[in-house]
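Dear colleagues,

As part of the handover before I leave the project, I'm documenting each prediction I ran so the next person doesn't have to rerun anything. This entry is a single chain, and its sequence is reproduced below.
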Amino acid sequence: MPDVSALAAPKRKPREPGAAAQRDTFLHDPRDNAAACRVRAAADLAEADTRSTINGRGVLEASAAQWTARAALLQRLENSFEARKLAGGEAPLSGGADGVSAS
């Protein structure tokens, strides 16, 4: 039987604890920043114009809309990270001051 481990997707490096470490690893993957998502959306829209079928255009236009929505979400996160950085605190990503949510 062939070795299928070589076919597996590459592993991401493990995240270190803390908001700063998560923010730093957050920006490594091109899909994980707003600017790259906007570029991808623009590329999909440009490609949609070249498609001769309605379905081909629809698929790419839907993809562009998804990339645009992802870019908006990531932009809000990036703005939040920057605001926390400027405020001088490393607030936990969720929960109270001690990082434990009060459920």
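The chain is about 55% helix and 0% strand. Residues 26-87 form one domain.

All the best with the project,
I.
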